[in-house]
Amino acid sequence: MTVDYQSIGLVNSEDMFKKALKGKYAIPGYNFNNMEQLQAIIQACVETKAPVILQVSRGARAYANQTMLTYMAEGAVKMAHELGYDIPIVLHLDHGDSYELCMSCIDTGFSSVMIDGSHLSFEDNIKLTKKVVDSAHKKNVSVEGELGVLAGIEDEVSAEKSHYTKPEEVEEFVAATGVDSLAISIGTSHGAYKFPPGVEPKLRFDILYEVEKLSLIHI
Questions:
Q1: Which residues form the domain of 106?
Q2: Do 170 and 182 form a contact (C-beta atoms < 8 A)?
């Protein structure tokens, strides 16, 4: 089964992000694993008239069944309409770890995919990310890349320490890959990661601000 995300009422993240940058507001991205979570997300976002990114990890996709996910996404769009407000909805693959997984998601209705090559060398990360971008953009699907490593556990991939994103690499990475958005590491961690007693994460907001300056140059 091949599904065009537009046929089930989804959107990609391009216009959504442009409006958020211009309006200076954040867009919620929620990972969900079942119907009850999805219902709560859609109801809350309709009530607040908030655009939303519905995120699905590799593990959640295997758990929920891809065919079921396609119909759940379509149901979310119709539920929002019935509740009285057609919020923009993106269906996004979170931390995709291979080209094949990204393409499979695109073929079954995802409007956005993340290819996480942060565990690779800088050069190999660029190659993998660009390969996904080149194929995804042919179908008007948004692509998120990742540069830097977050501490913690995400879908069986773990890292004990963060590797901060280097701002000087961001411009080269984005130019070489053509990604629509980029996840960077500033010291945050995934939820399964627990800091030792008395140790707090060192959040490098200076990196975030520097990357923001670079990105605004190209908007």
A1: 5-217
A2: yes
